[in-house]
Design brief:
The chain has 222 residues and is of the alpha+beta class. The chain has eight helices and five strands; from the N terminus they run αααααβαββββαα. A hairpin with a 6-residue loop joins strand 2 (129-133) and strand 3.
């Protein structure tokens, strides 16, 4: 079973950024492997706390996690425990600076990735769309191909946050969320039914298996 990041840090789901950071600092001091060399489980507990902090301290990752859970993070290109920090030392340096009491590596550090979620209607997903994606460098236009699937993700290389100490910049990762329409009017329903009748097997193949996006769309129209 996937860990609940809020339970790992011992905070409520509505905890503020300050409360999340305070909880992690407390756990990090208690569980750091250098302090608990005698406890074989301390390192795993520390890694779990670091993983939870990495997600909950990032507003965009936390929003995806709260809405979609761990699966949303993975589909968005953020596998837990490695999206923004290249090592435990990098994470400690970001949280504690030089005040933690342990040696922190100061070499080149890759910039943190940024995550942006794009919501498309089912029709936009079928036909393709041009969307505007904000980044710290300014707004960018990106063309999405026809038939793009829910959960699809891609990265704009080098458009994340700048690196430190000569390290490369991170990436801007984009995850697609397709919204199935609801509250259809009679006219919209008739159009949807005509589309359903015209679809052939090659139109509704999905790389996501039997419960793919188009399967959900077809069920919503019935």
């Amino acid at each position: 079973m996937a860990r609940d990041y809020y339970e790992v840090l011992g905070v409520e789901r509505g905890a503020s950024e300050t409360e999340v950071k305070r909880a992690f600092r407390k756990l990090a001091r208690e569980l750091h492997p250098d302090v608990n060399a005698h406890d074989p489980e301390a390192e795993e507990k520390f890694k779990a706390a670091a993983e939870a902090y990495e997600v909950l301290s990032d507003p965009e990752q936390r929003q995806v996690y709260d809405r979609y859970g761990p699966d949303g993070l993975r589909s968005g290109g953020f596998p837990p425990g490695g999206a923004g920090f290249s090592s435990v030392e990098d994470l400690l340096g970001a949280v504690f600076g030089g005040a933690f009491g342990f040696e922190v590596r100061r070499g080149p550090m890759r910039g943190q990735d940024l995550l942006h979620s794009v919501e498309l209607s089912a029709v936009q997903a079928m036909l393709g769309a041009t969307v505007k994606i904000p980044s710290h460098e300014g707004e960018r236009e990106v063309e999405l191909p026809p038939g793009i699937q829910h959960g699809a993700q891609f990265a704009l290389r080098g458009h994340g946050l700048p690196g430190a100490n000569g390290g490369p910049p991170g990436d801007l990762r984009v995850v697609i969320h397709v919204i199935v329409p609801t509250d259809l009017s009679e006219e919209q329903r008739e159009l949807a039914e005509k589309l359903e009748e015209s679809l052939e097997p090659h139109n509704v193949r999905s790389s996501q298996g039997d419960d793919g996006f188009f399967s959900r769309v077809r069920r919503a129209f019935h």
